[in-house]
Amino acid sequence: MEEQGIFFNELSFYLSIVLLAIYALLAIGLRSYVEPIIILTAVPFGFVGALIGHLIIGMPVSLYSFLGLFAAAGVVINDNLVLVDCIKNLKKEGMNFTDAIAEGGRMRFRAIILTSITTFIGLTPIMLETSYQAIFIIPMVVSLTFGVLFATMITLILVPCLYDIKETIVGNFSFLRSRDGERLV
User: Is 184 helix (H, G, I), strand (E, B) or coil?
Assistant: First the structure.
């Protein structure tokens, strides 16, 4: 039990460092401090989906489950990044912000759904495998499939809503703009 506690302490420490590095890279690429937070909001929901998947399958969480969580986080971040980037590009083209959110969601809906469905369907045979060789990888597959599936709904609903809230707040507060009118946040 003591070794397990040490493992989880180290795991949470390294997970924090990884998420901080991802945040920093997204902040540099997006030139925003808030948008990376919006993108990363769906990651905990992927973790919840993975835990729900373990409950549905009736499988205990293991070390390999955590590796699947990291893989699910990568897919979720990619889906959110694609959606936010599409919305930003539509805004740059001169589209009204509310219309840009709706159009971005419509344009990226198929890509996001297909990523999730193909991940789930493609990994289901491994999840249902009963051979001894697959027993070690099944927890990772359960975390990945259910984490991506659950976080997809969050990506399509929560992320556009948070992006809209962010734009509304920035639009209402002039001190969040630079002198030339460009947004600082």
Answer: coil
Contact 87, 41 (CB under 8 A): no
Could you tell me the pTM of the whole model?
Answer: 0.83
Residue 85 lies in a domain: yes
CATH code, 18? 1.20.1640.10
- Note whether residue 182 is domain-resident: no
Tell me whether residue 31 is in a domain. Answer: yes
Mean pLDDT by 10 residues, the chain (185 residues): 82 86 92 90 92 94 88 91 92 91 93 91 91 90 94 89 88 64 56
Q: Cα dist. 96→51, 76, 90, 92, 127 in Å? A: 39, 27, 8, 10, 44
Query: Which residue range(s) make up the domain with 82?
Result: 2-172
Domains: count for the chain: 1
